[in-house]
Amino acid sequence: MPFPNLAAITAPCQLSSLTNPALTEIQVALSRTGYPITTIDGLYGSNTSSCWAAFCAEVTLTNPDLVTPNAVDCVLKKVDALAVIEGGPQRTQDQVIAAIIAECNALGLTLRAQHAYVVATTYWETAHTFQPVREAFYLADPDAYLRTKPYYPFYGRGYVQLTWERNYHHYGQVLQSNLAANPDEALDPAVALFVLVQGFKLGAFTGHRITDFINLSNADFVGARLCINGSDRAADIATIAQNYMKTMPA
Known about the structure:
The radius of gyration is 19 Å and the shape is globular. It has ten helices and six strands, in the order αβααβαααβαβααββα. It has helices at residues 4-7, 20-32, 46-60, 69-86, 93-106, 112-125, 142-146, 165-175, 189-202, 234-247; strands spanning 13-14, 66-67, 133-134, 157-158, 214-215, 218-219. Strands 1-2 form a two-stranded antiparallel ribbon. Strands 3-4 form a two-stranded antiparallel sheet.
């Protein structure tokens, strides 16, 4: 994943002074690594500066007004580490579960209960297959059904259902792919894995983050369903998550 403008930074410089292409790369890298960049537009503003400040505070301990070669190296290494996880094998159930846990850890969701809930959601949303699926895949004529949806052809795809053109466009920017032009790319396990975990972390699906329900002081497996689909089968998925808690590695 190329970031030529960031790689060209050899001395500390003001974040606000970066060119549009360099700021775009900063926004992409921050979003890629789990920070809540709202719009990737290459413009300096409060959202970009606050996300960069959070990254500096958590990772590099450098002046948040500056972009240093060391900070650039840190964020790009995190991007590369995610790409390695996502590009690994995701053919079997065990491989997908291992990839989910690794992706969660890399994006800062490090609690075992969080891992169990994300795995349980994947089990449920993929009809127990642990493979990316299309919305309504179980119907005899899913396309006829999907054509009735206001978001067609940007219907649900993935480990969880990514829908609406704006979301395909946004994730295409983050992943530096043409996802909006080729929405079936959301069925690629690498893409599906990132969307799943980053969506849980940032509350991208419904506005609810997994950390709102599962954190150091609480593990509300029923309430966590709000991150994906209201209260639909919330108790069933909570039970699945509790079972994974008993069997997943510590």
